[in-house]
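Example record

The entry below shows one chain as it appears in the dataset: sequence first, then structure tokens.
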Amino acid sequence: GHSRLPTKYHNKQLQSWVKDQRKHYEKHTISKERIKSLNEIAFEWVPGVDVWEDGYGLLKAFVSEFGHARIPMLKDDSPYFKLVDWSIFLREQCVKLRAGDKTFLTEKRISILYKIGFEWDTKPTPTKAV
């Protein structure tokens, strides 16, 4: 499990509460007891970190196995199936970053992805499904 809320979540009160906890944490206006309690449930203090780590880890495994980072259309039972949506998501986040919008994607992460051969200007390759 995880403590991440989707961007468009039906419970606005919970979304607001989560946002407040992060704000208080950032401003150091939250008690140590509250921090400890939230850490015990793996509260995500910085949104997007787990998304990055999970996706990047999976991409590195794909590159290690196949020798490239060109994500083909994958069967839904493939261990790499989530990479199709993640690569589309990365491209969307890159557009947001370039437009000056808030995103978990950073120039450093873009550089890391370039280094392993991630292709920014392409859609998933319609090759034989893996």
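Notes for this example: The chain has a mean pLDDT of 84. Residues 1-45 form one domain.
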